[in-house]
């Protein structure tokens, strides 16, 4: 159990969540009851907070985070990869 868990708002779904700062990574690991566990960079959190178009993709990022990952690691979201991850998830859902 991590000693540094703090209450926060999930950056993806705005629901209640807990966050742990990832030392040296400028990122946080988020524990959300809805989106499961994932990592998000500070840069992307800022983008989601300020950019409505990016925030519109957050539901796809949430769904992507819920998919089981190889190795049991959570999804790692950054400002550099979120557009591609959201687009992949949107395409997967369109094909389902
Ligand atoms: Zn969430």
List keywords for this structure.
96 residues, alpha+beta, 5-stranded mixed sheet, 39% helix, globular, binds zinc ion
Question: Layout of SSEs?
Answer:
Layout: E1 6-9, E2 16-22, E3 27-32, E4 36-41, H1 42-50, H2 52-56, H3 58-66, E5 75-77, H4 82-95
Helix pairs in contact: 3-4
Detailed description of the structure:
- It is built from 4 helices and 5 strands.
- A hairpin with a 6-residue loop joins strand 1 and strand 2.
- The protein is of the alpha+beta class.
- The mean pLDDT is 93.
- It has one domain.
- It has a 5-stranded mixed sheet.
- The longest helix has 14 residues.
- It starts with 5 loop residues before the first strand and ends with a helix.
- Helix 3 crosses helix 4.
- The structure holds zinc ion (ZN).
- The site of zinc ion has 9 residues, from loops.
Total count of domains: 1
Structural class: alpha+beta
- Overall geometry: globular
Quick one: biggest sheet? 5 strands, mixed
Quaternary structure state of the chains depicted: single chain
Q: What letter string, H or E per element, gives the SSE order?
A: EEEEHHHEH
Radius of gyration: 13 Å
Read across the widest sheet, the strand sequence of neighbours is: 1-2-3-4-5
Bound molecules: zinc ion
- Number of contiguous helices: 4
Poorly predicted regions are none
Beta-strand content:
25-35%
The span between the termini is 37 Å
Helical percent range? 25-40%
Total beta strands? 5
The whole-number mean of residue pLDDT values reads 93
């Amino acid at each position: 159990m991590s000693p540094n868990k703090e209450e926060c708002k999930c950056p993806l779904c705005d629901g209640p969540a807990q966050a742990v700062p990832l030392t040296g990574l400028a990122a946080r690991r988020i524990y959300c009851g809805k989106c499961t566990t994932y990592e998000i960079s500070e840069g992307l959190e800022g983008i989601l907070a300020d950019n409505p178009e990016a925030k519109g993709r957050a539901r796809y990022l949430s769904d992507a985070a819920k998919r089981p990952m190889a190795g049991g690691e959570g999804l790692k979201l950054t400002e550099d990869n979120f557009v591609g991850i959201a687009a992949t998830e949107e395409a997967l859902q369109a094909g389902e």
